[in-house]
Amino acid sequence: MSDLLAELRAILGAGGVLARPEELFVYEADGLTHHTARPSAVVLPRDTSEVQRCVRACRKHGVPFVPRGAGTGLSGGAVACHDGVVIECARMNRVLRVDPDNRIAVVQPGVVNADLSKAVAKHGLFYAPDPSSQQSCTLGGNVAENSGGPHTLKYGTTTNHVLALEVVLPDGELVRLGNASGFASGLDLVGAFVGSEGTLGIVTEITLRLVPHPERVETLLGIFSDVVSACRAVGAIIKSGLVPSALEIVDQRTIRAVEASVYAAGMPTDAGAILIVELDGPSAAVAAQVERARAHCSDAGAREVAVARDAAERQRFWRARKGAFGAMGRLAPDLYVHDAVVPRAKLPEILEQVCAIGDKYGLRLSNVFHAGDGNLHPNISFDRRDADELARVIKAGEEILRICVEAGGVISGEHGIGLEKREYIGLVFSEADLAAMALLRDAFDPERVCNPGKIFPTTRFCAESNPKARGYDRVEFE
Amino acid sequence: MSDAFEQLARELGPQFERHAPLALEGAALEATLRPRSAEACAAALGALSRAGVGALITGGGTRLASANAPCRARVRLDTTALREAPELDLDEGVARFSAGTTLAEIEAQLAGSIWQLPFDPPGEGGTLGGALASAALGPSFSHPRDVVLGLGIALASGVLVKSGGRVVKNVTGYDLNKLFVGSNGGLGVITSAWIRLRPRPERVDVLVAPAPQDPALTLAAARAFSARAVAVIDAALAPQSCAAAGSARAFVLELAGDEAAVRADRAAFAAQLGASDAPAGALAELRAAQGSGAVRFRVAALPSEGELLRGSLSAAGASTLVYPTRGLVYARFDASASSNADASAFAAQLGAVASAAQRAGGAWRVEAAPAALRSGQEVLGARDETLALQRALKRAYDPRGILNPGRGFGEA
Q1: pLDDT of residue A462
Q2: B12 FRET partner, CA 20 to 30 A, in A338, A379, B68, B229?
Q3: How many other C-beta atoms are found inside a 10 Å radius of the C-beta of residue A187?
Q4: Which residues partner with B103 through β-bridges?
Q5: Inter-chain CB pairs, A–B, below 8 Å
């Protein structure tokens, strides 16, 4: 390792390599705090060439590496297993080009999500995917995780907005995938790469599609006596063919946490749930859509439906949603933000089951989620120092995933599999399905040196399917 | 080969139907497989792999001429009998269809619901599997990659796998949907797909106006409306629309959405550009321009390069259909009289299209050309730095090279 560190320092300078324990401590986890592994070093390249040279140095010394953005991920994807080196791209944070005529932007991977929308706002454009961590997460990380957010219901996730990528492959070669036009020759390598959780290479440049600001935005707040009624309103809206830009539910426990925090938004704490419905588009269309959405909420039993009168009120409605995770920090030292998706028509019954599971294990479980996508986020407040509570959290999480899969859903809508769910991916996919995915991995990274130990379960097939693999994915149990 | 065929006959039984050589895509196909289930399709591929026999994969046959000409294909694998009962979830707006279902049948099944299939590629009898494998586009909807939620895939190894799922948001594992959509059947055979349906608009109006002289005005006008299809098309491809517009090139706009929005856009479009109702066949003309004619190309570039591309392709003798907001230009060349002239003319046309695409920083591909002209030519675009990766993927998924051999990018 000392030889590798010396080589990395020669590439990046002493300030570009972190290797002291106190420096590495903060890289032991990402936003999922109960899966930890300390990297052997963290490197901070400033450009593509430095990324290439770092990758080649790691390969020369037989050390795996892990790309990392801001570390806001929630599945342990940016954690370095096997004493790997973290290649953090946060210093590559320039917006390289904005082309308003063609509605595209070219950025480095370390650009913060929200900063891109700020940079292009003067052109009447914005970048649509808006994960909850958008004030700090990076676009490179968004590409790795195919990040979503509240407005993906209408605008799609990251994959719908990436046109081209520059990627340092796991062997250190540089390749451009895709084309700014969105059409490239042959296979859709951009589509295959987005959401690959940093296992196929390191993104060093991203060409993104921008979206014009809608002519009109209206935000409704439906206040319901219980979360099941709010879910029914969502089902009715979807079934009617209305496509809001966002449909978000916040349950009572979350409302109370928010109202007791600095994020207090004036929401009624006796409400069972609130539903935020945002509609945007041409002025002529939105007015009629607001009335349709209002009627669906009322029919589902909303005790009150309000329409934001101005931008300040819209922000207040959203504060109840966006302040939720921060507010939960007051409840317990740790927060497990789960992530699963079910068919939207199944939301009422699944929500009831999720709450019952939380009660069964004596956990503080609350729900704030992208209801329009069927994307649940059961949040469990806990203390990881309490081994018994942690065990119950894990067990409850597994049960929640199982009921979601049984309902026709999947185990992740936007957080990814990472370390967190690699042992559960078999709930959704057979070994044959996973082996088909591993073929994609083999084409990019036959030796499995780029972010090893993620996505795939630690069962035998992953190591055995590819004789070139170095065994980083090899079993800890067989 | 006869030994291989004997082996296939033993393994597959009567479903391995030998016949007199069938000329298709320049290949002489000596047998046909028409699996009736996804499992049978996978079993057939496994047998073909073991025998080392290449297969030409076909659906409705509407996009056969848009890939490289095959080589080493001896068997036809016809997917049109993959027709299991659909699963329609109209509360959710999603549905699963088998690959052999035609797009027209899907539309018929959705008729009367609020949902529609968000594909409109040209060609009668086209199947869902074919539309996805060839990433077929039409005038009104975006790329099929954006609406595929999950796939059933038969692999060359003989294994049936799935990717994605039936929910509208999903990052569980790699997104193999994207890899297989547009892969021209070279990595596996799509046997079924979960599709995110689109709500039918309350109102659809198709309008036509003379194409603005200033291309910037075309783009600005197109973006000003909540249009679903926006096209500028030559009179040679759209005589009805151009006659209605009173112009050598027509600006065709399909407005689709809520009643009030369409009415407002319609009034504004009429006031700004003198638009009027398009003739009934205007959208059909767009589809025909994309889907008929012996020699056709598609070039994709940034929208700002659309007029440059159109000019270059017109100068090379093509009639053009431009989708200005998508940066797509379709170019159709009329056939010459003799086959020799065709060969040299095709080479010249391909060269002109490729250089126009290069100047515009875009990507080109052949949309259709006779197999004899495509033989030995790379027709799927300029070879680039991704070639090694694309070949590695082909080797990984199809190590014996039995799936559409020669048809994929970089295989000509």
Answers
A1: 43
A2: B68
A3: 26
A4: none
A5: 252
Pairing of strands A85-88, A65-68: parallel
Q: What is the largest CA-CA distance in chain B?
A: 72
Residue A226 confidence (pLDDT) above 70:
yes
Which residues in chain B are contacts of A99 at CB distance < 8 A? 302, 304
Report the residue of chain A nearest B397, measured CA to CA.
Answer: A439
ipTM surpasses cut 0.95: yes
Of the pLDDT bands very low, low, confident and very high (cuts 50, 70, 90), residue A477 is very low
pLDDT bracket for residue A463 (50, 70, 90): very low
Structure tokens of B174?
A: 């790699």
Average pLDDT over residues A383-387: 93
Candidate from A180, A409, A455 with C-beta closest to B302? A180
Q: How far is A29 from chain B (nearest CA, A)?
A: 21
Place of tokens 């500028």: B232
- In the block, tokens 């801001």 appear at A70
CA distance A11 to A7: 6
3-state secondary structure of B381: coil
| pLDDT score for B272 | 85
Contact A73, A31 (CB under 8 A): yes
Beta carbons of A430 and B161 less than 8 Å apart: yes
Chain B residues near residue A433 by CB distance under 8 angstroms: 161-163, 173
Which of B173, B362, B410 lies nearest to residue A179, judging by beta carbons? Answer: B362
CB atoms within 10 A of CB A201: 29
Residues A172, B150: contact at Cβ < 8 Å? no
The answer on pLDDT for A342 being more than 60 is yes
User: Residue B139 has which token pair?
Assistant: 């005038």
Number of residues assigned to chain A: 478
Q: What confidence tens digit (pLDDT) does each residue in A92-142 have?
A: 999 999 999 999 999 999 999 999 999 999 999 999 999 999 999 999 999
Q: What is the dihedral of CA B307, B312, B317, B320, to 10 degrees?
A: -30
Q: Are A249 and A232 in contact (CB under 8 A)?
A: no
b/e map of A146-156 (b: 16 or more CB within 10 Å)?
A: bbbbbbbbbbb
Bridge partners (DSSP) listed for residue B208: B252, B276
Residue B339 has pLDDT above 90, yes or no: no
